[in-house]
Amino acid sequence: MDRQSPLDSMESWFEQMSKQFETAADRWGTGLEPWSQGMDQPRIDVAEDDDQYVIVVDMPGFGKDDIEVYVTDNTLAIEAEQRDELTTEEATYIQQERTHQSLSRRITLPGDADTEDITATMDDGVLRITVARVEPLDSGHQIDIE
């Protein structure tokens, strides 16, 4: 009669755990998927030119009344919260479904961002924030070495 080694059962256990992790990874994804409703941070694009910074934020399903944009110190904050209630009456029962979604994002603005000159527009679920740039307080000068 062959005796089983405890290592044989451990190998089987490790194989089973590996399969479970693979299944979980398939379900959860890699973590690199684009933002979708239910995630707590929207994806953003930040572009710049000589006069301004432009931040474009995808916020599908949110209206402009659901979103707050504010600046504190040199940090731009975007916060949104949405509650939808849908009541449908069918036959002799009432069905009620609720969704709640909230998100926030903080962006540290560059040193030349004019935090007093920021505008925001919302169009088709895309928030566009424009931050003007200021001229540096001192353009600098050469220092002679004595």
From TrEMBL:
CDD domains: ACD_sHsps-like (cd06464). Gene3D superfamilies: 2.60.40.790. This is Hsp20/alpha crystallin family protein. Belongs to the small heat shock protein (HSP20) family. Keywords: Stress response. It comes from Haloarcula saliterrae. Residues 35-146 form the SHSP domain. The keyword Oxidoreductase does not apply. Pfam families: HSP20. The keyword Cytoplasm does not apply.
